[in-house]
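Appendix C: a fully annotated inverse folding record. The material below is reproduced so that readers can follow the format used throughout the book. The structure is listed first as tokens, followed by the designed sequence.
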């Protein structure tokens, strides 16, 4: 009899833990710095205050050998060719499905600053127009797809006399694990052509 009681207690505790896990909100903090002057890219992802992913890309090492670069391009071209048929067969996401997926993610903070200059005032001014237009469209799209709690800051700042390119991004995002799993199974991880009501 006591054995059954312990089994019931263990099942109840496990069920409670699973319920807490599925309804809990997971927060991610992302920091990105692209600094061509240092020829490096830095990416750090935090789960709460704990860094769970760090990546540093050294552009100089990537481009150090022209032969290695050619080999990399050849491999990339081969992968694209072999996967192209799968891409063409893949079902294109509908706007409704995109909204369903986006609604699982809440944006608490999104700040991005791009500093750009070609060294010429005229050419910098020419590229600034399209960049500002793309930035405005991107901000509208983010507001429509995701749940945004605070104003988004997407800035493009020109340098009319200096040749430069630098980008920094800082964002805090959260999602409920249970809802993310449900949306993934229902709208993302399904075979092309298969529909669900």
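Designed amino acids, in order:
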């Amino acid at each position: 009899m006591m054995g059954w009681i312990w089994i019931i207690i263990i099942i109840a505790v496990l069920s409670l833990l699973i319920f807490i896990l599925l309804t809990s909100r997971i927060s991610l903090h992302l920091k990105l710095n692209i600094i061509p002057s240092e020829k490096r890219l830095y990416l750090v992802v935090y789960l709460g205050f704990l860094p769970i992913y760090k990546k540093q890309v050294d552009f100089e090492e990537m481009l150090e050998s022209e032969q290695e670069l050619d080999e990399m391009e050849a491999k990339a071209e081969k992968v694209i060719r072999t996967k192209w048929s799968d891409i063409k067969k893949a079902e294109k996401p509908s706007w409704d499905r995109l909204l369903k997926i986006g609604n699982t993610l809440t944006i608490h903070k999104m700040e991005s600053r791009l500093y750009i200059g070609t060294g010429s005032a005229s050419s910098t001014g020419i590229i600034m127009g399209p960049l500002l237009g793309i930035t405005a469209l991107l901000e509208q799209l983010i507001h429509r797809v995701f749940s945004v709690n605070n104003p988004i800051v997407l800035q493009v700042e020109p340098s009319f006399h200096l040749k430069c390119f630098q980008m920094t991004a800082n964002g805090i995002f959260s999602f409920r694990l249970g809802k993310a799993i449900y949306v993934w199974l229902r709208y993302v991880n399904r075979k092309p052509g298969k529909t669900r009501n």
